[in-house]
Amino acid sequence: MLDLEQMKLAVVDALEDIKAFDITVMDVRKLTSMTNYMIVASANSTRQAKAVADNVREKLKEKGANIQSTEGEKEGEWVLVDLGDIVVHVMVPATRAYYNLEQLWGEAESRRGHIKAVE
Hints:
Layout: H1 4-17, E1 21-27, E2 37-42, H2 46-62, E3 69-71, E4 78-82, E5 86-91, H3 93-99, H4 101-104, E6 110-111
């Protein structure tokens, strides 16, 4: 079974595999008891968003993670993959800009390229 840090890195790898961009990892443990991390990523199209979310599910399942649920696959503007300890949001840029989850949930823990947690 993956520990939280391994799971977080596996999600980022799965996102990058399918060319998701603007990947932001937010540590929300102090803000909610629902989950530990929210990871937000952008995709160029609804088709890519679906493919990215699919890849996250597939790669994490291979590593033994429990996929709680997936939502938004039909439309593909915002696909959510709930891994319990981590919730992944894959969005097309217009949807991401509209909902602005990073601002909603406060300061982002880290950005792509600086995956280590900032304490």
